[in-house]
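At this stage, I needed to go through a protein sequence along with its fold in token form, as given directly below:
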Amino acid sequence: MPRISSHVLDTTLGKPASGIHITLFKFDQDQWLELNSDTTNDDGRVANLLTDHMPLETGRYKLKFALEDYLIHQQQPCFYPQVEIECQLVAEDEHYHIPLLISPFGYSTYRGS
């Protein structure tokens, strides 16, 4: 089943980052359209940002991670209040896993499996 999932890890604390709001957008006709949103669970994961009624189509997508509330709650500095990751999805039948590693003054991402 095609899906877009994510996992947020707090590298400062060495644990999953729960309670982070992630919004999924798709670029269509020169504008970003909001498709869906969810919040990371206790394991820092969102299993699927697509809904049952939303097929995965090829194209440009963006995930916006709202970090400010999480970092404040963890009593960490908040240099990056949000992170946006754009990606080009080319196969409609694949699972795309887009993890985010965060710390107060940096972040990293990669294509997961």
User: Anything to note?
Assistant: Residues 3-109 form a domain with the Immunoglobulin-like fold (CATH 2.60.40.180). The first strand starts at residue 3 and ends at 10. The longest helix spans residues 68-73.
